[in-house]
Amino acid sequence: MMYGVYSLNRELIMSNVEIYYFSMTGNSLHVTKELQKRIPETNRIPIVSLLNKDRVKTNGEAAGLVFPINSMTIPIPVKKFLI
Ligand SMILES: Cc1cc2nc3c(=O)[nH]c(=O)nc-3n(C[C@H](O)[C@H](O)[C@H](O)COP(=O)(O)O)c2cc1C
Questions:
Q1: Range of the domain at 63
Q2: What pTM did the predictor assign?
Q3: Is residue 61 a contact partner of residue 16, using CB atoms and an 8 Å limit?
C-alpha cells in the first residue's frame, strides 16, 4: 500500500504533502493536525519558522496553506511568507 491522497477510483493523486500553517490561538494548528491525520505522509511546517528565509524550497509533491482570517484579510506573517 502506498500512502498518499487517492481519487475515488483509487488513483494516487499525491503523496508527500507539506502543510505550511500559521496560528495564533491554536485553531489553525488544530485544523492542520486533523488534516495530517487524514492525509498520510504530511509534514507540518510553521510559517513563522521560515520568515527570515529569502526562498523556501518545498520537498513535497503538493503544498497546502492553513491560516486564519484576521480583520478581513490575510495575517501579516502569511503575507510576508507568500511574498
Ligand atoms: C484580531 C482578530 C481578528 C479577526 N478577524 C476575523 C475576520 O475578519 N474574519 C473572520 O472570519 N474571522 C476573524 N477572526 C477570527 C479568527 O479567524 C478565528 O478565531 C480563527 O479560528 C483563529 O485562528 P488561529 O487560532 O489559528 O489563530 C479574527 C480573530 C482575531 C483574534
A1: 5-82
A2: 0.86
A3: yes
